[in-house]
Amino acid sequence: MRIKDIIIFLKQPKIFVFAIIWMMLLVVLGTLAQKDMGLYAVQNRYFSAWITWFWFVPMPGGRLTLIVILINLSFFFFNKSIWKIKKLGIVILHLGAILLLVGGGLTAMFSSEGNMVIEEGAQSNYVEDYHFMELAIINTSANSFDEFTIFDQLLLERNKVLSHSNLNFEIEILNYLENCEPTQRTSPAGVQHKGMLKNFILNELISEKEDNWNRPGIIYKISNSGTNADGMYGLFLGQSVSQTISINDKDFTIILRRKRTHLPFSIELLDFKKILHPGTDIPKSYSSDINLIENGAVRKILIKMNEPLRHKGYTFFQSSFIEGPTSETTVLAVVKNYGRLFPYISSIIMCIGLLFHLSQKLPDLFRASKEKIAA
Amino acid sequence: MKFYSLILLIIISLSGILLPRDFDHRDIPIHENGRIKPLDTFVRNQLLVIYGKRSIKPKALPEELNSKELSAIDWFFDITLNPEEGDKYKIFNISNPEVVASLGLYWDPGHLYNRKEILSGLKNQIDYITTIQGKPEAELTQFDTHMLKVYSNVIQYQALSYSLSCLLPLIQINDENIAQSLSINPGDKLSYYQLMRKANKLSTLMERLLNRDQDEWSESDYKLQHIMGVLNEIDQDKFARILKIIPPENGKQNEEWLSPWELMASRIIGPNQEKLLITLESFLKSRIDNDIVQSKSLLAKYENLLAHPFNGLFILTNLKLETWTNKVNLFYKSIAFYILAFLLLVISWMTKPKLLRQISFAFLLGGLAFHFFGVLLRIIIMQRPPVSTLYESIIFVSLIGVICALLLEYTRKDGMGIFMGAIIGGVLHFVGLGYANDGDTLGMLVAVLNSNFWLATHVTTITIGYGTSLFAGVLGHVYLFQTIRTPLDKKYLKTVNANVFGATLFALFFTLFGTILGGIWADQSWGRFWGWDPKENGALLIVMWQIMMLHLRITGFVKPVGFALGMILNNIVVILAWFGVNLLNVGLHSYGFATGIAINISLFIAFELITGLGTYFWAKNRQKQLTAY
């Protein structure tokens, strides 16, 4: 009895109507907000948020609203009245809609994306995240190999102390700056300041509109090394001279960089081509001639706008490029998405459902008018 | 009977295109903004930039010409064949009185000025112009932008006027000795290019001249010096490089076309290019001599020369087709037919309803025929699907709206479809004409849009979605209006309500799949199905609004009157998604950033809100009154 009540409550179309109105409002706000806010920030605030705060009032965010719609939609199938041949189109249509939402959920939760930046003649086997950073500590003492110790951005919070069995010292995070700028010191450095901080300070800046325009920086303290390497250090993204320290015959290089995901294969850029419509600055096409290198086997592939490379669940898109004085650098967007096929399947299902419904319904809706003329 | 004769009339008027036509001077291919187009289109657009119209009206023409109108191509050949006489056209249209005053000109209602007036006015402003040229666009005042526009227009005019001067027979050679050594008859006129081709003969003469003292010079030597002076003077025109009509020697796709003056300067002219230049030169001479037979045969020769090796670059029949389209202006014809259909329908409400309604229906069909044919020709000329720019989307949406209206009329046969079709077709056409005046409506596309498959599927579907949605919205207006007019005719209103509902379902089909296809394109091109980009969100809003209205109606939350209002408000959502998101200036769909449309959008929204809400409450009131009795 109580389960039945719950079902009756959950399948109410009223829920859907309120949810979709709320969703429309979120979409409008999220679209207008893009004038001042970056897309990533807008998504986090409105669309992929569970809760959206309006001043101090918590309201459902896009993700929660869509889940409400999904639940409401699932309970639609408990309506006995829809299981008729006349309503078949409607049932199929709603089934397709469920698939679309489920696919969206999978994508939102499990997909990952990033950039692969390769200069002509060079190769790469890792993807850089758009938003997350990592702190890499590389032990370069051995001749034949380097030992990497990586700390994720989630650990790079103020006052966190990082340690690892690979390291004969500890790192204490003093500050993590979302966006910063190194500026020349005007006052003399203290004895505690080491490395880059001897000559520079990191000025915190307000965050840029787009998250990936920021230059994050970090201030940290090395302690318990038992040597004079102990002290205060600084790093920022894209620092040209990386921080090296040596502690008890071990040499370390410390880098703040975009979070890397390594692939089981590598890509070599042979040639990047940009073709303009002749006599104009309007680009006609961009393309990258690449070698896909996997287990020693080399395969030549051309990645073009609208024609990506798909391999092992990863998809590589021609996304951007950097023109250098001597050679060009391609920027490939790399995406791994488990929910990829859902929109394709669900759109076919919905299309069938809606066509079926239209073919049944439209003649009625327009025949009515003919009868009137006859009358 | 009337109906068939009208169809016949349309076929006759369109049949011009079916007859093969000789290549003429309008069809000469030229390369501009990444596209190969007929000279006719090029000069029309040039004239549009300078003058604001695509042909010259009598007011701007010299009085002695006494003609009604001058086409862009005739104007072009006049100013290029007689570059020094270009002052006779008053075609500089300056709409800003401040600019007119600072150029020392008199402001009159026509505000049209000739080249001489502009040039002498600009002389005093040249310092100011150099300072504002360096400024970023955001810092310029309205006066500055107008001033810069006048400046660039006059430069463009000069560049056009002198673009062919190297091919014109401007150098008369009277001296017998010189004529003999150049192997021509004395008194012949040569062009700069001809003399260049005889450069080796000329240089022997020149050597002799330089090796002798001036007091030993013969008459021939003085003549030669004069010729060199003229040559030098013509050489000053080499800035005029706007007319890129000579294809790359090897006939390759991605190489630049060159203007005659660029070829003169480069001194590397391939044999195929040389043949074209010489033919062009002779053609220009035949035009100066008014030798029609000769100029015809030279054009035929030019056409033959274009065939190889340049045939991979363009399709000559399409160039001819484009010239023809420029001339007949199909969309002006369709707009006229729509207006006529509307007027006849209005008259039919007063007298002879059935006959006039049928004629009016035939006119709407006629308008549609022109409209459809115009869209079809654009597809053929550009070899891409119908919608790729904002302008094309407007023309296409109006086509879809008219087709929907015709289908409605076909089922109802009471004039409602004609009424809606004429309004949708007419109004959107007018909006489209405004966009057409921005310049060449057949532009090239940036890389990501340059995909015929996705343009054909996603863009076409979503645009059909806009059209059907607007149609449903207009039907909503009709429903509310009829409820006010005949609230008692329940049966009639029920049929209209069914139509609104049906049109909404129909619209949802296209908006929904257009949006999903857009997602699939994004997934194929950028690796994400959905990115919350403004344009995507706009499309999503239309879909959500329509789904909401359908559910509200099915569950009985709103009555037919409310549903009609909902679909009227849907029009606002459509317009915002279609034009409004371009105002945000963010996102990947940067194909139609327009300025100045904000006011029009606001006016439209205000109109829909006032009429929609006004008729809604009025209709509700009427219903209430009647139930009270």
How would you concisely characterize the structure shown here?
The complex is a heterodimer of chains A (375) and B (629). Chain A has helices spanning 2-10, 13-33, 39-47, 62-75, 88-110, 341-374; strands spanning 51-54, 57-60, 112-119, 123-139, 147-152, 161-162, 170-177, 180-184, 200-204, 217-223, 231-236, 243-247, 250-276, 283-294, 297-304, 309-311, 314-323, 328-336.
Question: How would you describe what is shown here?
Answer:
The complex is a heterodimer of chains A (375) and B (629). Chain A is an alpha+beta fold. Chain A has six helices and 18 strands. In chain A, the strands form four sheets. In chain A, strands 3, 4, 5, 12, 13, 14, 15, 16, 17 and 18 form a ten-stranded antiparallel beta sheet that branches. A four-stranded antiparallel beta sheet of chain A has the order 6-7-10-11, with no helix packed on it. In chain A, strands 1-2 form a two-stranded antiparallel sheet. The radius of gyration of chain A is 28 Å and the shape is globular. The model of chain A has no long low-confidence stretch (mean pLDDT 86). Chain B is mainly alpha-helical and 629 residues long. In chain B, helix 16 packs antiparallel against helix 19, helix 20 runs parallel beside helix 24 and helix 21 runs parallel beside helix 23. The longest helix of chain B is centred in the last third of the chain and has 37 residues. Chain B is elongated and about 120 Å long. The two termini of chain B are 49 Å apart.
